[in-house]
Amino acid sequence: MTRLFDESRRSFLQLGLATLASVTVTPALAAVPRPKGIRALGFRNLHTDEKLRVDYWKDGKYDRAGLAKINRILRDHYSGDVRAMSLRLLDLLHDLQGRMGHEGAIEVISGYRSPRTNLKLASASDGVAKHSYHTKGMAIDIRLPGKPLTKVYQTALNMRRGGAGFYPDSQFVHVDVGPVRRW
C-alpha cells in the first residue's frame, strides 16, 4: 500500500512540475531569436535593366550592405532617388517567392517612388494613389516570370500581410505592407 501511495505521489509531483515548467517556459519561447540562415532576393528592374541577386539577411540579422544594394535597384527610376525599403516588404517578397516555388529574379515594374514622381504619375492616371505606399518604401509592383499573375495575386492575398492589387492589362501585381486590402 505504501508503494502504491509513493508511486501516486511521485506521479502527482511529476505532473505538477511539468505543468509549472510549461507555464514558465512558454514566455521564454516567444523570445527565441529568428533561426540562423540566409534570406536572399533577386531582382530585375525592367526600367533600368539592372539585375541583382543578394543575401539581405544572414545569421539572424539583416545585412546592411545587402539592403543598400536592394534600395539602390528599387530606387525611383525617374528621379534616381533612393529610399530604404521596408524590411517587412522584403520579408513578404521572400516568403511570397517561397510559397510560389519561384527561385528566379523578381521583375520590378515599380519600387520606391519619390513624392514628386508619384504626384506626377497620379495626375496622369487614375491607377496611381495620391498617397501611395510606394512613396514610403512599403510597396512594389512585380511579376514572377513563369508564374501566372492570378496565382501571384491570390497567394499574396492569402498571406494577409498587406495590400494586393491585380493589374492584368499592365501585367503586374502590386503588393504592400500597409493594411490588408485588395483590388
Describe what you observe in this structure:
The protein is of the alpha+beta class. Helices cover 40% and strands 22% of the residues. It has five helices and eight strands; from the N terminus they run αβββααβαβαβββ. It has helices spanning 2-30, 64-73, 87-100, 115-124, 149-159, and strands spanning 38-45, 51-58, 61-62, 106-110, 139-143, 163-167, 172-176, 181-182. The chain has an eight-stranded mixed beta sheet with strand order 3-2-1-4-5-7-6-8. A hairpin with a 2-residue loop joins strand 2 and strand 3 (61-62). The radius of gyration is 23 Å and the shape is globular. Residues 15-34 have low confidence and may be disordered.
Assembly classification: single chain
Number of DSSP helical runs: 5
How many E-type strands? 8
SSE order: HEEEHHEHEHEEE
Question: How large, in whole angstroms, is the Cα Rg?
Answer: 23 Å
Specify the helix fraction band: 40-55%
* Helix/strand/pairing category: alpha+beta
Note the overall shape: globular
Estimated share of beta-strand residues: 15-25%
The major beta sheet can be summarized as: 8 strands, mixed
Quick recap:
This protein is of the alpha+beta class. It has helices at 2-30, 64-73, 87-100, 115-124, 149-159, and strands at 38-45, 51-58, 61-62, 106-110, 139-143, 163-167, 172-176, 181-182. Strand 1 (38-45) and strand 2 form a beta hairpin.
Structural topology:
Layout: H1 2-30, E1 38-45, E2 51-58, E3 61-62, H2 64-73, H3 87-100, E4 106-110, H4 115-124, E5 139-143, H5 149-159, E6 163-167, E7 172-176, E8 181-182
Parallel strand pairs: 1-4, 6-8
Antiparallel strand pairs: 1-2, 2-3, 4-5, 5-7, 6-7
